[in-house]
């Protein structure tokens, strides 16, 4: 039996090669012919394992092997609608279009599709998110701090309006050491010099609530009214806007 199985598998592989097989019917016919030839040769051959082994053992093994392959090819012939053919032309294989991929949603039940859509959605939380327990900031710098949210003005060295229009936040001033004579001050507060910029007032409020800080908004108290003027106003005859030409 050890000599029959490799021979039978090699014969089946040779019969199923691309150079000989044109369709499933041709492959089935060639396998049946080869099985008959193997059967006749096995009956006439000597037993491979000595005189104690029957002479028809090799033929029966080959018949069982090819009968199994025969059933397999019959089932494939009933399923397949096209012939199997291999080619070495790479240009043709590149020009062929790939089969469209089927979405995995088409294979799911409606209940599974609804469950997957629910898992992909977001959960709306009405309460404010508080991350202060996991930030690592000491408790005395969370519950006892007051934050001022304001819109900074231009500094004395600034003539244009660049770097304005945003909102900032800073913390209240705690106890510190000052020396006005030399313009020196020091503080043990780690949050005294921290300033964060925001695009809007609402973003700054959300950031303070998320970190657990008390806050208040300092609105701009001075708004300079805009007065449209023209060059001719300086020479009005009935108003006190005339300037001397001397």
UniProtKB/TrEMBL annotation:
Electron transport as UniProt keyword: yes
UniProt topology in membrane: Peripheral membrane protein
Cellular component aspect of the GO annotation: mitochondrial inner membrane
The keyword Transferase appears for this protein: no
Subcellular location: Mitochondrion inner membrane
Pfam family, one: NDUS4
Keyword annotations of the record: Electron transport, Membrane, Mitochondrion, Mitochondrion inner membrane, Respiratory chain, Transit peptide, Transport
One GO biological process term: electron transport chain
Domain of life: Eukaryota
Function: Accessory subunit of the mitochondrial membrane respiratory chain NADH dehydrogenase (Complex I), that is believed not to be involved in catalysis. Complex I functions in the transfer of electrons from NADH to the respiratory chain. The immediate electron acceptor for the enzyme is believed to be ubiquinone.
Family the UniProt entry places it in: Belongs to the complex I NDUFS4 subunit family.
Protein name: NADH dehydrogenase [ubiquinone] iron-sulfur protein 4, mitochondrial
Organism: Tenebrio molitor
């Amino acid at each position: 039996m050890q000599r029959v199985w490799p021979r039978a598998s090699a014969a089946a592989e040779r019969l199923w090669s691309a150079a000989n097989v044109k369709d499933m019917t041709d492959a089935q016919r060639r396998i049946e012919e080869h099985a008959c030839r193997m059967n006749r040769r096995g009956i006439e051959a000597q037993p491979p394992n000595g005189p104690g082994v029957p002479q028809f053992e090799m033929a029966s093994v080959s018949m069982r092997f090819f009968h199994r392959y025969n059933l397999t090819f019959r089932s494939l012939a009933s399923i397949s609608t096209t012939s199997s053919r291999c080619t070495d032309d790479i240009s043709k294989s590149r020009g062929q279009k790939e089969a469209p991929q089927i979405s995995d949603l088409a294979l799911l039940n409606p209940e599974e599709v609804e469950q997957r859509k629910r898992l992909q959605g977001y959960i709306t939380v009405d309460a404010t998110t508080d991350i202060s327990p996991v930030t690592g900031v000491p408790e005395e710098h969370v519950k006892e701090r007051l934050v001022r949210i304001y819109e900074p003005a231009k500094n004395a060295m600034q003539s244009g309006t660049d770097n304005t229009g945003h909102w900032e936040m800073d913390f209240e001033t705690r106890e510190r050491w000052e020396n006005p004579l030399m313009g020196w001050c020091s503080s043990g507060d780690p949050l005294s010099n921290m300033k964060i910029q925001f695009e809007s007032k609402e973003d700054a409020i959300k950031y303070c609530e998320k970190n657990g800080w008390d806050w208040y908004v300092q609105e701009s108290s001075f708004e300079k009214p805009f007065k449209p003027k023209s060059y001719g106003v300086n020479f009005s005859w009935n108003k006190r806007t005339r300037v001397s030409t001397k």
